[in-house]
Amino acid sequence: MARVVVTQMVMQQKLTKFCHLRQQWRLFFSASSPQQQTEFFDPETCISSIKQCQTLQSLKTLHAFTLRSRFYHHHDLFLVTNLVSQYASLGSISHAFSLFSSVSDSCDIFLWNVMIRAFVDNRQFDRSLQLYAQMRELDINPDNFTFPFVLKACGYLRDIEFGVKVHKDAVDSGYWSDVFVGNSLIAMYGKCGRVDVCRQLFDEMPERNVVTWSSLTGAYAQNGCYEEGLLLFKRMMDEGIRPNRVVILNVMACIRKVSEAEDVCRVVVDNGLDLDQSLQNAAMVMFARCGRMDMARKFFDGISNKDLVSWTSMIEAYAQADLPLEALEVFRQMILRRVLPDSVTFLGVIRACSSLASFQQARTVHGIIIHCFLGNQLALDTAVVDLYVKCGSLMYARKVFDRMKQKNVISWSTMISGYGMHGHGREALFLFDQMKALIKPDHITFVSVLSACSHAGLIDEGWECFNSMLRDFGVAPRPEHYACMVDMLGRAGKLNEAREFIERMPIRPDAGVWGSLLGACRIHSNVELAEMAAKALFDLDAENPGRYVILSNIYASSGKRTEADRIRALMKRRGVKKITGHTVIEIKNKVHTFVAGDRSQPQTELIYSELAKLMDRIRREGYTPDLNFALHDVEEETKEKMLYVHSEKLAIVFGLLNSGPGSAIRIKKNLRVCGDCHTATKFISKVTGREIIVRDAHRFHHFKDGTCSCGDYW
DNA sequence: TTAGGGTTAG
Question: Could you say which of A367, A586, A591, A682 has the lowest number of CB atoms within 10 Å?
Fold first, then answer.
């Protein structure tokens, strides 16, 4: 259904474009009627007509008239400059440049400025720089108008080397003190990542205006210097300078706290700034970033004419906040209102589907994308590959990957990481070998390969890959690569080797590295090393509830009940809240969520009676409950009952009851799958003959005929 | 006689 609607919308949009074009043609024909043609002989009317030309054809006609006119000579620079400028603003850079070339022996700086600007406006930044270089070779001196255009091109190209040369020219010519030139310099250095130079320029500028402030806030925002951006904004307020909407937009991008968000909204009101569409969209994104989805939604609902960006931002905000159902509902509303989505919208929708892990939704969304010709195909295809990976289908992921016309380092890394997440280490390495022959891997590729080795227990291969990073590819290992290695060694039970590896690290181990060690200690019940890792983690990552829970579980399963309770108490004292585990399953396009002991489903009675039967069946097959995973201080029998009602088991039973015989069951858990559930699921897959695909917070487990694809290596 | 800088809103 959605696919049909979207396809219709694409066709309608094309028709609208066509009608618009036809209207423009009609205007052109009426503008070139004989009565109007005579007026072109008047010089003033001619120039103003040039500026009013709306179509290339009418401008060309006018150009032809001027050449025939007795008032103008072919080399009349004033006229030529205006024509060049108008050709460029109608998007015809070729006409503009050929006309410019016919008089380029001229040393008129005005003409050169217009042509340089023409290239910049048409995003041909490299050609604008070539023209500037040519102009300098001809010893034509740039003026205060030249610099802003050229600097803009340097900024967009991130060409700091050229930018520095232009900066020097600006200083030599004395135009550096022009406020327009100074503002452009700040913008250029900001885009090139040199906020330090931006600040120095700002401090030394003899004259500033509101654009100077917005340029520097923009530079801070683009470079992630949010604190500095906010400080500058505060100083601006203190100095009594009235901000405009660009300053507000830049500052909104810097904000991470609700109180700051509310402050900036007050500034908007106090200064009587119009809260236009773009500011409302930016405010919505800002509140979502601060975790206030209610406020974000309020802004969204308050936008009377929601545009593509409003819809897309809201979808992305929900997806980022891990509220995929809300994201998809906004997408549905958007389609109902016949707003045509673009590739960015679909990236948000894909993110939402991916966190739902809904295979059916993935198929639908992929179908829509295929029919839409949205552009940005490389990014979309890569996102779809990742989507199928996350929805548990390596086969579909690989199909899309193989059909991609273009692949970049991200596409390759995504597919490799997909194999890794599903425990197919050998395939991951095979693909990595193919990739190396075509394209240079980056630091993310190495995370994918190393984690694939880790999940599959490929230790020698993992070492080889790690050692090759710097040696063969010039990629220096970062903390995340060390974390993968610790994870790999730790999972394999080489805990001391993992510890020694950390001790030899040339960079300071981060929370990820220690977290890997702690996780390994949980698998292999090593209390001593766990304490060491936890000590480091409580300094580095005190807010993360997972760390406390793992340490407490390690103590509990080693019989150290007092220690376990001490950690739980510490967690409570520090106000760190445990994340509640839940499992989701999709049945007939509807997503059902289960928590431990869940009784909210209408089928509750049926689920629990089926669960009891199933547990008896697998017990007869040899399953014994692993009471280590029921850690509360209660009687053994109660412990066992608590294990029975884990959310994973409830979701699986619900799936068995509500899906076709023999079909695969796909569930997703928000935390790591519990060890007892892992064992039970193996037995369930055996006695029911069903394939069960479990996505947990770390990887995938494919259960079939009593075994798991992870080889119990997780 | 002509022109310019700061937001890729996601």
Answer: A367
Instruction: Kindly give, in sequence order, each residue whose CB lies less than 8 Å from that of residue A457, ignoring residues fewer than 6 positions away.
Output: A425, A488, A491, A492, A711, A713
Q: What is the mean pLDDT of chain A?
A: 88
- Nearest nt to the CA of A109 via C1' is B3
Q: Is the CB of A253 under 7 A from strand B?
A: yes
What's the fold here for domain A478-579? 1.25.40
Q: Report CA(A628)–C1'(B2) in Å, whole number.
A: 82
Q: Give the Cα separation of A212 and A185 in Å (integer).
A: 10
**What pLDDT, on a 0 to 100 scale, did the predictor assign at position A588?**
84
- pLDDT value of residue A30: 47
Q: Which two tokens stand for residue A666?
A: 């796909």
Over the stretch A249-281, which tens digit does the pLDDT of each residue have? Answer: 999 999 999 999 999 999 999 999 988 889 999
Distance between CA atoms of A476 and A468, rounded to whole angstroms? 10
In the 563-622 segment of chain A, residues within 7 Å (Cβ) of strand B are none
CA of A430 to C1' of B10 (A): 36
Q: Beta carbon of A498 within 7 Å of strand B?
A: no
pLDDT for res A12: 54
Cβ atoms within 10 Å of A32's Cβ, excluding its own: 15
The domain spans of chain A are: 478-579, 586-708
* pLDDT for residue A3: 54
State the nucleotide closest to A151 in CA–C1' terms. B5
Q: Is pLDDT above 70 for A630?
A: no
**Full 3-state SS string of A175-195:** HHHCHHHHHHHHHHHHHCCCH
Mean pLDDT of A376-381: 89
Residue A273 CB in 7 A reach of strand B = no
Res. A696: pLDDT tops 50: yes
The yes-or-no verdict on residue A637 having pLDDT over 50 is yes
pLDDT band at A5 (very low <50, low <70, confident <90, very high): low
Cα A77 to chain center, whole Å?
49
User: Would you say the C-beta of A81 is within 7 Å of strand B?
Assistant: yes
pLDDT of residue A374: 73
A46 touches strand B (CB under 7 A): no
Rounded-to-10 torsion of CA A616, A618, A623, A627: -50
pLDDT at A6: 54
Tell me which protein residue sits closest to nucleotide B7, measuring alpha carbon to C1': A246
CA contacts within 13 A on the Cβ side of A281:
14
Q: Measured from the CB, is A110 under 7 Å from any atom of strand B?
A: yes
Q: Strand A665-669 and strand A692-695: pairing?
A: parallel
Determine the protein residue whose CA lies at the shortest distance from the C1' of B5.
A180
> In this predicted structure, what is the pLDDT of residue A2?
54
Contacts of A581 (CB under 8 A, 6+ apart): A595, A596, A646, A647, A669, A670, A671, A674
Q: Is the CB of A340 under 7 A from strand B?
A: no
- The CA–CA distances, whole Å, from A330 to A289, A312, A368, A644, A676 equal 18, 9, 16, 37, 38
Chain B: bases < 7 Å from a protein Cβ:
1-10
Q: Structure pTM?
A: 0.81
pLDDT per residue over A196-248, tens digit each? 999 999 999 999 999 999 999 999 999 999 999 999 999 999 999 999 999 99
A:194-233 Cβ neighbours of strand B under 7 Å:
209-212, 214-215, 218, 221-222
Nearest residue, CA→C1' of B10: A313
